[in-house]
Amino acid sequence: MIEILSWILRIARYYEYAIVIYVLMSWLPGAQQSKLGQWIGRIVLPYLNLFRVIPPIGGMIDISPIIAILVLNFAVSGLSHLILLLF
């Protein structure tokens, strides 16, 4: 069971890295339209779109990726505590 938890934590960490990379790509012109940007977008955008209901601060700063990463970390933490409690 610890191996499953280890895999879940690893996948969640890689997903968090993908979110950060996608956000950083938005600062570079045309980076999100590249093959790599489109591939990461297909993985990350469905999750990020859940948090797009939060309006940008000042009309420009989108905090939804920060909220998405926090929710992902809370979910993984809760799941790991639950798994460790059960076993």
Protein model, in words:
By secondary structure, the protein is an all-alpha fold. Helices cover 70% and strands 0% of the residues. It has three helices and no strands. The chain has helices at 2-25, 35-48, 64-86. Helix 1 (2-25) packs across helix 2. The termini are close together. The model has no long low-confidence stretch (mean pLDDT 91).
How many helical elements?
3
Rg, nearest Å? 15 Å
- Strand count: 0
Structural class: mainly alpha
Amount of beta strand? under 5%
Low-confidence stretches: none
Helix content range:
over 70%
Task: Outline the biggest β-sheet.
Answer: none
Mean pLDDT: 91
Shape: flat
Q: Give the termini separation.
A: 8 Å
The helix/strand order is: HHH
How do the strands and helices of this protein lay out in sequence?
Elements: H1 2-25, H2 35-48, H3 64-86
Helix pairs in contact: 1-2, 1-3
List keywords for this structure.
87 residues; mainly alpha; flat; 3 helices
Gist of the model:
This protein is an all-alpha fold and 87 residues long. Helix content is 70%, strand content 0%.
